[in-house]
Amino acid sequence: FAWRKFKSDDDQTGVNCAVFRNEHTDVPASSLIRSAMEIAWEKWPGERLYTYVNHRKVKPVMVRSVPVWGFCFMKAGWSYMGLTKGGLLIWAYA
Q1: Tens digit of pLDDT for each residue in 10-34?
Q2: Average pLDDT score, the chain
Q3: Distance (Å, rounded) from C-alpha 71 to C-alpha 63?
Q4: CA-to-CA separations, 69 to 10, 54, 55, 76, in angstroms, rounded
Q5: Confidence (pLDDT) at 7
Q6: Of 19, 70, 75, 87, which is most buried by a Cβ count within 10 Å?
Q7: CB 64: neighbour CB atoms within 10 A?
Q8: Would you give the DSSP letter of residue 60?
Q9: Taking a C-beta distance cutoff of 8 angstroms, is the pair 93, 75 a contact?
Q10: Non-local CB neighbours of 37 within 8 Å, separated by 6+ positions
Q11: Residue 71 half-sphere exposure toward CB, CA atoms < 13 A
């Protein structure tokens, strides 16, 4: 995980998860995300957290026959917020 306080060109504000990679550990990705959220809030209390998911680079998880890119963020309590101008999916926890 790598966090940064950032305002994007797409007017997303808060603390951005710039990098997240799960090396297929025994720990679920959603658990890693929740742990990283606690660390972010230690540095930036109460800030909105957000990230981008490139649906062309990650595999979707099928939820009731619907593909969900960024499923691990959804499992960690984040919400899908729409698309960037460049077509990336925006996920946020506010």
Answers
A1: 889 999 999 998 887 788 999 999 9
A2: 94
A3: 9
A4: 19, 8, 6, 14
A5: 83
A6: 70
A7: 5
A8: P
A9: no
A10: 49, 76, 93
A11: 11
Q: What is the pTM of this model?
A: 0.91
Indicate the pLDDT class of residue 53, thresholds 50, 70 and 90.
very high
The full DSSP string for 3-58 is EEEEE-TT--EEEEEEE----S-SS-HHHHHHHHHHHHHHHSTT--EEEEE-TTTS
CA distance 81 to 86: 14
25's CB contacts (< 8 A; 6+ apart) are 32
Distance, CA of 15 to chain centre? 11
Q: Which two tokens stand for residue 66?
A: 């619907």
Q: Fill in the amino acid letter for 29.
A: A
